[in-house]
Specification:
This protein is mainly beta. It folds into three domains: 152 residues, Ribonuclease Inhibitor (Leucine-rich repeat, LRR (right-handed beta-alpha superhelix)); 184 residues, Ribonuclease Inhibitor (Leucine-rich repeat, LRR (right-handed beta-alpha superhelix)); 155 residues, Ribonuclease Inhibitor (Leucine-rich repeat, LRR (right-handed beta-alpha superhelix), Alpha-Beta Horseshoe), CATH 3.80.10. The longest helix has 7 residues. The chain is elongated and about 95 Å long. The N terminus is likely disordered.
Length: 546
């Protein structure tokens, strides 16, 4: 069974949920107000500059993009103070090499100097209080810049794509840094964040490939998605006490990151946070984290040790995918759910200690590992919990003919059938599931082409997604009254299925549970919650059965 990698770089799924995504972080220009200004005010020219009169002040709105080289923004024009540089005023002026802005200017608009690819230096006066969105984006020749003490905020993508920027001084006055502010500043080697900053916005330093050191101040409480993604030169990082959440893909593709300290103040770690951190060898997760989410350690090929706190209750999809150096793993007692592919491709993994109380194990969870199953009988492979009380049926693909799953395996009660456990088991003709099993996993009997009969006990409460998909010879099935939920495509493509009998109240069921199948649904007369149809199939009383 093959799995698709969850993320590429910072992760396409994450980008779609951000206010500013990677694709527009350095290229797009915010919808400006220049057109509106032109409708209201006459545009005049002065020394290759275009401007508008705004009451008693002047706003620079544009320039002759072919003639400018070195440029000083004048303090006055027509006797009026120049106090602002408008949106996109010098956008894509590729001839400008350096700019001096005098003290009369208090505002620099969105994309004001974006795409000035020859700009090597700029002087920003103390009168400016904010660096607007995209203000210097794609100024690819800019090597250094000093932000004055008057500035309190740096906007989204303000310096994104400044690929030659080697140093920048952010004053203590700055309290806010926008999304993707320094994205793809490939030459930036170190940066100090002022103490007033409390949150890192999405992608702030993503793809700063030369960034080796960064000091996160104690004031920071939140690190948003993709903040340090693709920072391939960072080797270690300390997250200060006080940080409570680390966003998705925050350190993804930090291929030289060998160590990271996560304090106990952290309660949430997002999807793919350390994906493809191929040099990471060991890590301790905060005691207050309760979920290891999808792809958290995907492709961390050198990871040999990890401490998971007792409070964790679930492992997400592909959480440890391709962690090829893991040799043993202890799952904490509080974990109840292990989603599909969690340990897929962990080829060095030979031993796993699993607790009681697991209610679901997703498909392919232990595929391409070298775990030795503790009991093999009749082609059925189990993992037994550390207490010896629970047995989990992981792999039954070698089963043949009529199979009855035992109630006990080495004294342990069989309580679960993992996702895809019998997938493509074409020799399986009938199966009896024992009392004690509570869930039938995703795709558990997918494409068991010869399966004609199945007995589901009254202990089962859920039938997973695609559980009996493409079981072409299955003609009828009885669902006990204990079942309360049935996943999508549960009976997909069961072309011979003519009747499904429910012995209890109507379950929660996905609308496409019987897609490409055409059974009649039969129910008890006194059962509750039923209508004329269930998931698009007609419902009749059991007494109406032919």
């Amino acid at each position: 069974m093959a799995f698709t990698m969850l993320t590429i770089g910072c992760g396409e799924e994450e980008k779609t949920n951000l206010n500013t995504n990677e694709s527009n972080a350095i290229n797009a220009k915010p919808a400006g107000t220049l057109a509106k200004h032109k409708a209201k005010e006459a545009v005049s020219s002065y020394l290759n500059l275009k401007y508008e009169i705004k009451g008693n002040a002047i706003q620079i709105t544009g320039c002759d993009k072919n003639l400018l080289r070195a440029l000083t923004i004048p303090e006055t024009i027509e006797g009026k103070s120049v106090n602002s540089i408008g949106n996109d005023a010098f956008g894509d002026c590729i001839s400008i090499t350096n700019i001096t802005i005098l003290n009369s200017v208090t505002s620099i608009g969105d994309s004001a100097f974006a795409g000035c690819t020859s700009l090597t230096s700029i002087t920003i006066p103390d009168s400016v209080t904010s660096i607007s969105n995209y203000a210097f984006a794609r100024c690819s020749a800019l090597t250094n810049i000093t932000i004055p003490d008057s500035v309190t905020s740096i906007g989204d993508s303000a310096f994104a794509g400044c690929t030659s920027l080697t140093s920048i001084t952010i004053p203590d006055s700055v309290s806010s840094i926008g999304n993707w502010a320094f994205y793809r500043c490939h030459s930036l080697t170190d940066i100090t964040i002022p103490d007033k900053v409390t949150s890192f916005s999405a992608g702030t330093f993503a793809d700063c490939a030369s960034l080796e050191t960064i000091t996160i101040p104690n004031s920071v409480t939140n690190i948003s998605a993709c903040t340090f993604a693709d920072c391939t030169s960072i080797t270690n990082i300390t997250i200060p006490d006080g940080v409570t959440s680390i966003g998705s893909s925050t350190f993804s593709n930090c291929i030289n990151l060998t160590s990271v300290t996560i304090p106990d103040s952290v309660t949430s770690i997002g999807v793919s946070v350390f994906a493809r951190c191929s040099s990471l060898k060991g890590i301790k997760i905060s005691d207050n984290v309760t979920r290891i989410r999808d792809g958290t350690f995907e492709d961390c090929g050198r990871l040999t040790s990890i401490t998971i706190p007792d409070g964790v209750t679930s492992f997400g999809e592909m959480a440890f995918y391709n962690c090829t150096s893991l040799t043993s793993f202890t799952i904490p007692d509080g974990v109840t759910s292990i989603e599909k592919g969690a340990f897929y491709g962990c080829s060095g993994l030979t031993s796993i200690i699993i607790p009681d109380g697991i209610t679901s194990i997703g498909s392919g969870t232990f595929t391409r590992t070298n775990i030795k199953y503790e009991h093999i009988e009749d082609g059925l492979n189990y993992l037994i919990s550390r207490t010896g009380q629970s047995a989990y049926l992981i792999d039954g693909r070698d089963a043949n003919g009529s199979v009855s799953i035992p109630t006990l395996v080495n004294g342990a009660s069989v309580s679960l059938i993992a996702g895809r456990a019998f997938q493509n088991c074409t020799s399986l003709t009938s199966i009896t599931i024992p009392d004690g099993v509570t869930s039938i996993g995703e795709g558990a009997f997918f494409r068991c082409d010869s399966l004609t009969s199945i007995t589901i006990p009254n202990s089962v409460t859920s039938i997973g997604t695609g559980a009996f998909g493409d079981c072409n010879n299955l003609t009828s099935i009885t669902v006990p009254d204990s079942v309360t939920s049935i996943g999508w495509d549960a009976f997909y493509g069961c072309s011979s299925l003519t009747s499904v009998t429910f012995l209890g109240d109507a379950p929660k069921i996905e609308n496409d549970a019987f897609k490409k199948s055409s059974p009649t649904i039969y129910r008890e007369a006194d059962a509750k919650g039923w209508g004329d149809t269930l998931a698009g199939r007609p419902v009749k009383l059991i007494t109406e059965k032919p």
